[in-house]
Amino acid sequence: MNPIQEQLIALGAVFQAAVMVDKIAKTGQAAESEVTCLIGSLLVRDANGTLDVYGGDDLNLREGYRALVSALERDPTSLQREPLRYALALLGLERQLDKRGDLLQLMGNRLDQIQSQADHFGIGHENVISSCGALYQDTISTFKQRIQVQGDSRFLQQPANASKIRALLLAGIRSARLWRQLGGHRWQLVFSRRKLLRELYPMLRG
Q1: Cβ neighbours for 70, distance < 8 A, ≥ 6 positions apart
Q2: Signal sequence: where (predicted)?
Q3: What are the residues whose beta carbons fall under 8 Å from the beta carbon of 179, sequence distance 6 or more?
Q4: Which residue has the higher pLDDT, 75 or 10?
């Protein structure tokens, strides 16, 4: 796997988190396997490769890849506007987080506790998701820039959905961090669109 492909897996996961946030906000639904894939990525510290962060394959990132492709193609008929807005906001928030060593340390400590919860209950358990959501509230939500999630108030006001949305946004931040650590830059989305799309099309087909 080449460096661009590694970056695209992480960036695809950012978009996957954004797509799932949009789905929950509008329908109250999200595939459990996709949720646990992203929540699980928060707890992976020493992966051998980028795919290992997401459970060893990218099956649960395909919707993220599709959203990323539509953003890079700039096709107004297929562009997923809310997921694109969320994904770009996550990339910006991660840059702010990188300057906050205090919050990074807090996140590390809290994720250790969440790992213990996950070992006991399982990654997809509501207690684990709730703890991840609370961690997002206590860290990323303290920034001036906030992600305003648009959707159906019936779903947004349900505590379980609110926790899941925050937990997925936290997972999106983690993937944005990984993308940048792998050499990803926002200017690639503008100046290297064709190159990224050439690598992405085969990944979509798997």
Answers
A1: 78, 79, 80, 84
A2: none
A3: 7, 10, 11, 14, 91
A4: 10
Number of Cβ atoms within 10 Å of the Cβ of 189: 17
Task: Provide the b/e sequence for 85-117 (b: ≥16 CB within 10 Å).
Answer: bbbbbbbebbeebeeeeebeeebeebbeebbeb
Total number of domains constituting the chain: 1
d(CA 68, CA 188): 13
Rounded to two decimals, what is the model's pTM? 0.97
Is residue 40 within 8 A of residue 55, CB to CB? The reply is yes
Q: For 122-153, write each residue's pLDDT tens digit.
A: 999 999 999 999 999 999 999 999 999 999 99
**Domain span holding position 17:** 3-205
Contact 139, 106 (CB under 8 A): yes
CATH code at 179? 1.10.3890.10
**Other C-beta atoms within 10 Å of 37: how many?**
24
> Residue 7 above 80 pLDDT?
yes
Q: Which residue has 């340390």 as its token pair?
A: 105
Q: Which residue has the tokens 């997921």?
A: 83
Structure token pair of residue 43: 């707890």
